[in-house]
Amino acid sequence: MTAIGHACARGVATLTLDAPHHRNALSAALVADLAGALADCAGDDGVRAVVLTHTGTTFSAGADLRDPPEPGALAALLRQIVALPRPVIARVTGHTRAGGLGLVAACDIAVASTAATFAFTEVRIGVAPALISLPLLPRTDPRALARHCLTGERFDAAEATRMGLLTACGDDVDAVLEPVLDGVRRASPGALAATKRLLTARVLESFDRDADGLTALSARLFSSAEAREGMTAFLERRDPEWVV
């Protein structure tokens, strides 16, 4: 059963992360399903733009610790979003953690409700935001990113907008999204594709230069003793042994 819902209206395809019982965690299956759905959108001339959204109260809790994707598969998914010849727009109404923020950062435009919260929780389970740094570093404020990645603190949609993770936020996310969708529907398909290539060139350069090394780093960290302790502590709902 696919973990991705797919609908299309007036040239806009909506892909929905639909595994709310697992907080839309990035399992191997969900990553594969999303990659397939994005490929379908790329091959459909009737699709002008893609909206990436979710069911439940969580956009994505990050990597599924019980069934994580291979690091290379996650890196490929993030690059696929950046390189897709259609604008990809994140619509976030719930909580977003760790790898889920990589999905948001990879999108061309990201809007969220003010009820959404965000956190880079990797350091708290003994790993680092290695792969998601590929779309994050070119698009976000370095000082804000350093604070949130190094501490794992939770922050709100207003801060996510200020640091560049989000494009905009509001109490009614669909009211924020409406003019964005109207804009892409008024744009010519060829001009949209050409403009996206201009805007994503530097982000794709970071993938082509650094993805292999960061994939290896991610694999090494996830297999470390600290990661084993951190993930076990998370699943057992206790502090890891290094907390002082």
UniProtKB/TrEMBL annotation:
GO terms for molecular function: catalytic activity. InterPro entries: ClpP/crotonase-like_dom_sf, Enoyl-CoA_hydra/iso, Enoyl-CoA_hydra_C, Enoyl-CoA_Hydratase/Isomerase. Pfam families: ECH_1 (PF00378). NCBIfam families: PRK07827.1. PANTHER family: ENOYL-COA HYDRATASE (PTHR42964), POLYKETIDE BIOSYNTHESIS ENOYL-COA HYDRATASE PKSH-RELATED (PTHR42964:SF1). Belongs to the enoyl-CoA hydratase/isomerase family. This is Enoyl-CoA hydratase. It comes from Streptomyces cyaneogriseus subsp. noncyanogenus.
